[in-house]
Design goal:
Elements: H1 8-38, E1 46-50, E2 63-66, E3 70-74, E4 80-84, E5 95-96, E6 100-102, E7 109-111, E8 116-118, E9 127-133, E10 138-142
Antiparallel strand pairs: 1-10, 2-3, 3-4, 4-9, 5-6, 6-7, 7-8, 9-10
Length: 143
């Protein structure tokens, strides 16, 4: 068996290349994880509500809490938004004031669609896709 001639310079070059490749690979995994957390994927659960059970949703601008942490706001004749009311900063429940949201814990504010308008929160409120069925007067919320 022949002994390989591997000098210090070759060893250092190989070591640095290995470290660089490993660092880039780990960074790519972290970036993928960060980007994935920004995408608000649903749980696959659909909640269907009869709008007759929520009279405040009968007119544009009306809102109603659906379950413990979801608010639905009627933004147009057949348009609705559904948002999770958990502040993205420290997980306190935000309060809806008719035009936007405010966190009572640290003062973060969000507009009526859940977008951050003032920190310390950096992420928007979690939103859910809604589908209005005029014939049945119902709203499907994809949680």
């Amino acid at each position: 068996m022949e002994k390989a001639n591997f000098n210090r310079r070759d060893f250092l070059k190989t070591s640095f290349k290995t470290i660089a490749v490993g660092t880039v690979a780990l960074s790519a995994l972290d970036i993928k994880k960060i980007l994935a957390s920004e995408i608000q994927e649903g749980t696959g659960i659909q909640k269907v509500i009869n709008l007759a059970d929520y009279p405040d949703l009968g007119s544009v601008g009306g809102s109603a809490m659906i379950g413990g942490k979801t608010i639905v706001i009627r933004t147009g004749g057949s348009k609705f938004i559904a948002l999770n009311i958990t502040c993205t900063h420290k997980k306190c429940d935000v309060e809806y004031n008719g035009s936007g949201f405010e966190c009572p814990c640290h003062g973060s504010t969000y507009d009526g669609s859940g977008k951050v308008t003032n920190g310390p929160a950096k992420k928007n409120l979690k939103s859910y896709k809604t589908t209005y069925n005029e014939a049945e007067n119902s709203l499907t919320i994809n949680m």
